[in-house]
Amino acid sequence: MWNGWVIGLLGIWTGIVPFFSATPAFYSWSNWIVGIITAVLGFSMLAERPAQGWITGVVGIWLFIAGFIQSLLMGSGLWWNNVIVGLVFLIFGFSGASGAMQHRTMGPQGHATGHSPA
Q1: Exposure check for the chain: N or C terminus, fewer CB within 10 A?
Q2: pLDDT tens digits, one per residue of 50-77
Q3: What pLDDT, in 10s, does the model give residues 24-33?
């Protein structure tokens, strides 16, 4: 559950980073660090939320690779890449977190867990 929240927050970071006036080296390091973290956290969600886990894991790997592509570290390439990746992390990270919370509140067959009143 917590990994979905972290991925969602990293999605916000990834989406707003193109608006900073920084060097391409800053963007590279940001993409490498966020890419590794989201790939690991995304793949760790596979047991509970397979779709969200695969999507965020693969997109995290892409973000890491994008840190090496010069045309994606400046101008419109940076903007489009990071805004799209940020939205994917935001949507699938938070949906993975909310889905895990719902799964814990409801049993596997969709029935509420806990004790029934006597």
Answers
A1: C
A2: 777 888 888 888 888 888 888 877 778 8
A3: 888 888 888 8
DSSP category for residue 72: G
Q: What is the DSSP string of 45-67?
A: TTTT-HHHHHHHHHHHHHHHHHT
Count Cβ neighbours within 10 Å for each residue of 58-79 and write b for 16 or more, e otherwise: ebbbbbbebbeeeebbeeeebe
Q: Tell if the pTM clears 0.85, that is, is over it.
A: no
- Boundaries of every domain in the chain: 2-105
How wide is the angle at C-alpha 22 spanned by C-alphas 59 and 79, nearest 5°? 40
